[in-house]
Amino acid sequence: MSAAEWQETWYLFDEKRKGTVSKTDFIHIVRSLGRKYTEAEIQEKTAGMGDQVSLDEFMEFMKKPYEGPTQQDLLTALQAFDGNETGFLKHSEIVALLTTLGEKMSEAEVKQLMSEVKTDDQGRVSIEEFAKYLNEPVPSMTPNIEELQKQLS
User: How many angstroms separate the CA atoms of 70 and 67, rounded?
Assistant: First the structure.
C-alpha cells in the first residue's frame, strides 16, 4: 500500500482533519490496513504513544516493516489440533479454538471469518487451505467505510 492510501484510510477516522485520532482509532486504522498484530504486540508497539496519535506518528508507524505470521506459522499452529493427522479440522473445532484460546475472537468475528471458508460435505476445513486463507492480504485496498463505521459503533 502507498502512503496516499494510508492517509486516505486515516481520514476516514479523522473526518474533521484535526490531525489526531484516539489511540483506539489508531489501532483500528492499523488493523484495517492488514497489520495483524496481536493485542500484546500492538500494546507493546504503541506503549510510548499518548491518548491521541498524530498523522505524522501514524505515517512513521506504517513505514516500519511488518512481519506478520507466515502461512507456515499458521499451518504449524493448526496442525497441533489435528490429533488424527487428517489434514482437516471440523468447522466447530475451529470456532471453539478461535473463541476460547489465546486472543479470543467474538462469535460475530468468527462467524464472519468462517462464512468465507470452504468446508467439505463432512463439515471439515482443510488446514492447509485455512492457513493459506488466513495469510492472504486484505482483498480490498480501500476499506469498506460502512463496515468500519459498524465496527466502531
Answer: 8
